[in-house]
Design goal:
6 helices, 187 residues
Length: 187
Amino acid sequence: MHNWDLEETNKYNYIPNNDFKYTYNQNEFLSPKAIEEKLDSLNTAQEKLEFVYNAIYCNKNKNRFAYFKDMPYDIPLPKYENKFKSLKFEEIKPTPVAPVEPPKPTPQPTTQELEIKSLKDKLSQKEKDISSLEINYQKALNTKNHLSYKLGEALIKANKNWYKGGYVKFIFEVMRIKKEHRNRGQI
């Protein structure tokens, strides 16, 4: 994974102690079913918080969730200490907030100012549209000068005039287009 190569992976393939080995121990195991039943039996959020803190959060045993195939599912919760009661809570009093002054009304633009802004916006949009049209027109002109466009155009013309020897003329037209593009340095 990441920057580990096969040699680095093999180096950690075998760990000589049981630090990372999960083993089932009924006296430490926290059964999901028992946890759910306990939470369902509690009435208030405070009771549920105390249970989760004491039985799950404070239980640092690495094997508390170790469960293996063919193990019994109905296992009661192990005994746990009520450490929640020893927690010290302090009430946080809200800090007083200075009164906020209402915002001062912004002056409304006059009808004349609104009309001028509208005209400026329209003019700006038209200039953008014209600029966009010019760019698109230039792109279209550039496309018409591409070798593939000219060859396709010549092929269509030859196909329309096939009965007048259009395909023979097409061969000469291809040579002319190729020479023209070579002279312009485009091939």
